[in-house]
Structure formats: structure tokens, C-alpha cells
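pinging the channel bc i need a second pair of eyes. not urgent but kinda urgent?? the chain im working w is below, pasted from the shared doc
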Amino acid sequence: MSKKRDVLTLIISVILLIAINYNYLDDKLESYLSTSETALVERVIDGDTIVIAKNKTSVRMLGINTPEKGEAYYKEAKEFLENMVLNKTVRLEAGKEKTDRYGRLLRYIYVDEKDINLELVKLLGENLVILFLLRTIYLLIRT
């Protein structure tokens, strides 16, 4: 009987400890399993790369490749990203690949739950449609 009571006391104690420390344990488990972090954007390098304040780490947007300096639309892409994230706290979410060959973090970027990577794709898509239409019109007029 004493052994059953000891086991029961142990089970109840464990349940109570878990219940009392649930928020603490939940936060620790969530941070351990989470693939995201928050950071302050200190600088925008170009249309797809930022620098966060934490350790001056470079972060490249996953799935995005904007024009480099000296190429067409470089300025527009950089200004778009600056308007969206500069001096703001963002959530960085890792994908399958964590870093690129230059050691930059590869992340999806969110501001207030808005997917900045997706917003950039939408902007680029709209501009590509406009460029296609203008080129088509030009070719029709020329012939």
C-alpha cells in the first residue's frame, strides 16, 4: 500500500510542477522548436539583403533576387525594402536552408505578420506585367 501511495504522490507532484510552471515550460519549448526570431533592422543593403542590429548580422531574403547595384530597378527595389523594414522590428523565419555561401542568414521577413518576401514578389510581378505590355505595344507600333 505504501508503494502505491508513493507512486501516486510522485505522479501528483509531477502534475503540479508542470501545472505551476506551464507558462515557463511552454515558452522554453516554443523557443526551442521555433524557427523564427525577432530583430531590429538597422540597414538595408539592397533590395533583398538587410543588416539586423543583433551582432550586425546580414540577412538575405529567401526566394528573392533583386537587381544588384548598377542594374536597372536596383534603386526601386532597395527603396521598397527600406520603406517596409528599415528601423522596424521584424520577425525572421528560417526555411530549409539556413545560410548562403557568403554566411548570410536566409530568412523570410515579416512586419506585423505581413510577408515582406511576398509583397516584393507582388511588386515585381506587377512591374513585369507593365513592362511586358509596354514592350508589346512598342513592337506593335514598330511593325
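so Residues 53 and 99 are 18 Å apart (CA to CA). and The chain is about 50% helix and 30% strand. — does that match what u expected or am i reading it wrong
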